Amino acid sequence: MDELDHRIMAELTQDSRQNSAELARKLNVSETTIRRRIQRLEDDGVITFSAIVNPAKLGYNIMAILALEVDLGSIDEVSESLAICPNVRYVSLCTGNHDIFIGTSFRSSGELTWFVKDYLAKIPGIRRSETFLILDVKKDEVGWLRSLEQAENTD
């Protein structure tokens, strides 16, 4: 990846709905070059395009992060069981006191209660869970690469 790829990604991070002609004009390269570069970035798995839904706007106002302790031999099965649940937005394997962290969204505290007491309880291998309610989100940045690059440029 070169500087042009990074500039394309920075532009798409700011507005992914820009078309190739707009990007070509902004970056002073041909539209064909832009299309080819974007296609390569997609093919290589560097970028993907999707709509980002705001769960709170759909009534999912209860957000929580759950930290799980899991039997080591069950980590893959547990993480796969969590990944298929519609309320689970994020699943990560971790080091430290917890083995898996999940990000969740619910319409009510009752739904969260059901999730912990009934859904999690039926997944073999989960030894312990700890639930953290999210009170407020101060940063939820999709285009984090732009922030990293800006920080690097100020050093």
Structure keywords:
155 residues; Alpha-Beta Plaits; Arc Repressor Mutant, subunit A; elongated; 4 strands
Written account of the structure:
- There is one protein chain.
- This protein has 155 residues and is α+β, with helices and mostly antiparallel strands.
- It contains 6 helices and 4 strands; from the N terminus they run H-H-H-E-H-E-E-H-E-H.
- The chain has helices at 3-14, 20-27, 31-43, 75-83, 109-119, 144-154; strands at 62-70, 88-93, 100-106, 126-133.
- Helix 2 packs across helix 3 (31-43).
- The model has no long low-confidence stretch (mean pLDDT 90).
Task: Summarize the SSE layout with pairings.
Layout: H1 3-14, H2 20-27, H3 31-43, E1 62-70, H4 75-83, E2 88-93, E3 100-106, H5 109-119, E4 126-133, H6 144-154
Antiparallel strand pairs: 1-3, 1-4, 2-3
